[in-house]
């Protein structure tokens, strides 16, 4: 019964806040996102996928923020999600748009197992691949986009992620610390978009033509 109420609060929050992000999600997409939220709630006590938060906070901070990626992904785009953790931002994007494909890279075995079960339960098997390796032990594949939102010690690993990404559009989520790290590379040009309902969360966009790290 408690889970039913939490799910209801999540759905209400999506509908209440999506316009602030410029979205008008279909009822089907919202239901599928609620299914994903339930799976995270079920496994979070053991796996610590996300910090404990209310349904409303999860909606804004994790789901709607992740979906801001969609504006930058072309039709039929394939992207790599580095250090995806709970599957953010990739899984919400895959649930909202059925033309997208993604490679989810997660080094922690238990989280990778959760991701495999989750994409199967959500019917995403044919559009999502789980890679249980450090990102440097694999490749970005044939996609033209790389995103990163939950990678541990992201600012410390930034230069390595940039090299690994090669000549692909980078879509990185972060705050002022990530901006500072990006600014240290003087040859790097990027744009930043402040997340709605936030004072210091940004999407940093580095297009393929802007930078290729040697």
Descriptive account of the structure:
With 214 residues, the chain is an alpha/beta fold. The chain has a single domain, classed as Rossmann fold (3-Layer(aba) Sandwich), CATH 3.40.50. The protein is built from 7 helices and 7 strands, in the order H-H-H-E-H-E-H-E-E-H-E-H-E-E. Strands 3-2-1-4-5-7-6 form a 7-stranded mixed sheet, sandwiched between helices. Helix 2 (27-47) runs antiparallel to helix 4 and helix 3 packs across helix 4 (90-96). It starts with a helix and ends in an 8-residue tail after the last strand.
Primary descriptors:
about 210 residues, Rossmann fold, 7 helices, alpha/beta
What does this entry show, briefly?
The chain is of the alpha/beta class and 214 residues long. The protein is 42% helix and 15% strand. It has one domain: Vaccinia Virus protein VP39 (Rossmann fold).
């Amino acid at each position: 019964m408690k889970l039913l109420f939490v799910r209801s609060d999540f759905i209400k929050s999506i509908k209440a806040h999506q316009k602030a992000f410029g979205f008008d999600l279909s009822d089907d997409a919202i239901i599928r996102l609620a299914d994903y939220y339930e799976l995270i709630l079920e496994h979070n006590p053991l796996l610590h996928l996300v910090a404990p938060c209310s349904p409303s906070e999860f909606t804004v901070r994790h789901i709607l923020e992740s979906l801001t990626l969609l504006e930058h992904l072309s039709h039929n785009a394939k992207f790599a999600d580095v250090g995806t953790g709970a599957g953010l931002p990739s899984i919400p994007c895959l649930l909202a748009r059925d033309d997208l494909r993604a490679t989810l890279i997660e080094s922690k075995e238990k989280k990778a197992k959760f991701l495999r079960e989750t994409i199967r339960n959500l019917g995403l098997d044919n559009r999502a691949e789980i890679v249980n390796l450090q990102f440097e032990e694999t490749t970005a594949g044939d996609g033209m986009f790389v995103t990163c939102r939950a990678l541990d010690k992201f600012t410390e690993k930034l230069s390595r992620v940039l090299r690994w990404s090669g000549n692909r559009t980078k879509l990185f989520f972060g705050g002022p610390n990530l901006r500072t790290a990006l600014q240290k590379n003087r040859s790097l040009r990027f744009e930043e978009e402040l997340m709605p309902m936030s004072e210091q969360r940004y999407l940093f966009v580095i297009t393929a033509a802007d930078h290729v790290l040697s």
